[in-house]
């Protein structure tokens, strides 16, 4: 199941950018962070796909959602200019950003290539 993130939860579960400029992943398993807004049609198209992926990869990856309208500081910290934007955070290397409503097959490929996770 996808989980909503506040700035406080993000600092604790993903990356504490207030303490460090250097990327240091705080999570136990890789994650995807979906930066979205309630009014965004492409975001609404991606939401059920992310729910499916969260069930299919349960225990292997976490999928978080950040409402850019509510968490403006968090969106600003990552330079979010268009939504949906997804941040893919592997456990042991630099995160990568993807912009746009990606199809499930492409998301699965990114999960395999960037997050190094298989079903």
Structure commentary:
There is one protein chain. With 119 residues, the chain is an alpha/beta fold. It has a single domain (3-14, 29-113), classed as 3-Layer(aba) Sandwich (Glutaredoxin). The protein is built from four helices and five strands, in the order E-H-E-H-E-H-E-E-H. It has helices at 7-13, 41-56, 72-77, 104-113, and strands at 3-4, 31-36, 62-67, 85-89, 96-99. It has a five-stranded mixed sheet with strand order 1-3-2-4-5. The protein is globular and about 35 Å long. It starts with a strand and ends in a 6-residue tail after the last helix. 29% of the residues are buried.
What can be said about the biggest beta sheet?
5 strands, mixed
| CATH homology superfamily | Glutaredoxin
* CATH topology title: Glutaredoxin
SSE order in H/E notation?
EHEHEHEEH
Content-based structural category: alpha/beta
Count of helical regions: 4
What separation lies between the terminal Cα atoms?
16 Å
| Name of the top-level CATH class | Alpha Beta
Helix amount: 25-40%
Number of strands: 5
Shape: globular
**Domains (count):** 1
Summary keywords:
alpha/beta, 4 helices, 119 residues, Glutaredoxin, five-stranded mixed β-sheet, 5 strands
């Amino acid at each position: 199941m996808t989980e909503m993130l506040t700035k406080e939860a993000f600092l604790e579960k993903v990356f504490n950018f207030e303490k460090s400029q250097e990327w240091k992943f705080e999570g136990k398993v890789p994650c995807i962070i979906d930066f979205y807004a309630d009014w965004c049609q492409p975001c609404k198209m991606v939401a059920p796909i992310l729910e499916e992926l969260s069930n299919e990869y349960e225990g292997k990856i976490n999928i978080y959602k950040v409402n850019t309208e509510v968490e403006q500081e968090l969106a600003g910290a990552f330079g979010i200019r268009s939504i949906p934007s997804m941040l893919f955070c592997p456990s042991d290397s630099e995160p990568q950003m993807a912009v746009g409503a990606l199809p499930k097959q492409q998301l699965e490929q990114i999960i395999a290539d960037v997050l190094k996770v298989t079903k």
